[in-house]
Write a structure and sequence with these properties.
Blueprint (H helix, E strand, L loop, with lengths): L19 H21 L11 E6 L5 H12 L3 E5 L11 H11 L2 E5 L3 H10 L4 E3 L7 H15 L6 E5 L4 H12 L3 E5 L8 H14 L2 E5 L2 H5 L4 E4 L11 H7 L7 H4 L7 E4 L11 H4 L6 H20 L5
Parallel strand pairs: 1-2, 1-3, 3-4, 5-6, 5-8, 6-7, 8-9
Bound molecules: phosphoric acid mono(formamide)ester and norvaline (NVA).
Phosphoric acid mono(formamide)ester binds next to helix 2.
Length: 318
């Protein structure tokens, strides 16, 4: 049976955990909070007063950490950042960490290496668990990216997004959400760096239902043709540092630069989840150029996560 607040108490481990209607619901809440925050820098009757979020981060972060912490404060709640103090599975098992946090806080955001760790955390915790990035997915990033594109394009049906580089966590979540909303999501990655086959299958079945499409290739010049959005991310993700040199060689041809941009739509926008590695996956002239919307993406991390937290932890608005 549908409830008035379908996201209350829910986990967000994969972006595919949310239906399109639930994503729309998060976006509606985000829009209301963003408008209010931009007008007054305050939220009336803050929706998360008295709520506490534990943030278990096993990897570094600027955007995810600060936007969750600032977001909780702005919504009247509190966040506790835990990094070296709690190395999951080292000082204590994931299960024991989850069962203790359950007694203290209202929700957990976790950033881990293996995706299975957040899955286990969510299985053991009774409070909601939000994936703040694993090697498989980055759902909060995808929500912010798609929200940013919606602000710019309105409907995303038929909008072509070309992702140049690694078929990684950021690509996985973006592809799953983009095709659900009717986008044509393309990827050019070097042989051996294609996305996870199960995610590809999932995205293809979501695309079939949602009207979007997923196109995988190897040639950056081919996929950016007529694209409205060019997206890239680090060649080496956190946790893959030992492969950095090998990856620099494999990805040398996969740089978003002025030559590549010249092949895309004249008014194409450029996206990057950040942090960027200037001179590797993207050149400074493009990252700082007129088509770049990377700081809008980054700002929207704050707003969409507030929308998400308000939906998961707050009282219903309707
Ligand atoms: N995009 C993103 O997740 O950035 P951080 O790694 O700084 O959190
Ligand atoms: N793919 C990158 C994203 C960083 C936000 C990583 O996992 O390191």
């Amino acid at each position: 049976m549908a409830t008035a607040d379908p996201l209350r108490g829910r986990d967000l481990l994969s972006i595919a955990d949310l239906s399109v209607a639930e994503v729309e619901r998060v976006f509606d809440r985000t829009t209301a909070l963003k408008d209010e925050f931009r007008r007054t820098r305050r939220h009336v009757g803050p929706p998360l007063a008295g709520r506490t979020l534990a943030m278990l981060f096993q990897k570094p972060s600027l955007r995810t950490r600060v936007t969750f912490e600032a977001g909780m404060a702005q919504l009247g709640g509190h966040a506790i950042y835990l990094t070296n103090d709690v190395v999951l599975g080292a000082r204590e098992s994931v299960r024991d960490v989850a069962r203790n946090l359950d007694r203290f806080v209202d929700a957990i955001v976790a950033r881990t290496g293996p995706h299975e760790v957040v899955v286990e955390l969510a299985a053991q915790a009774t409070v909601p668990v939000i994936n703040g990035l694993t090697l498989r997915e980055h759902p909060c990033q995808a929500l912010a990216d798609v929200f940013t594109l919606r602000e710019r394009f309105g409907s995303l049906r038929g909008v072509v997004l070309a992702f140049v580089g690694d078929g990684n966590n950021v690509f996985h979540s973006l592809a799953l959400l983009g095709v659900a909303l009717g986008m044509e999501v393309r990827l050019a990655s070097p042989p051996g760096y294609a996305p996870n086959a199960r995610i590809v299958d999932r995205a293809r079945s979501i695309a079939a239902a949602g009207g979007g499409s997923l196109i995988l290739g190897v040639d950056p010049a081919e996929i950016v043709r007529e694209a409205a959005v060019i997206y890239t991310d680090a060649w080496t993700s956190m946790g893959q540092e030992a492969e950095a040199e090998e990856r620099r060689d494999a990805f040398a041809r996969y740089q978003v630069n002025a030559d590549l941009l010249a092949i895309a739509n004249r008014d194409a926008v450029v996206m990057h989840c950040l942090p960027a590695h200037r001179g590797e996956e993207i050149t400074s002239d493009v990252l700082d150029g007129p088509g770049s919307i990377v700081l809008d993406q980054s700002e929207n991390r704050l707003h969409v996560q507030k929308g998400l937290l308000a939906e998961i932890l707050g009282d219903p608005v309707d």
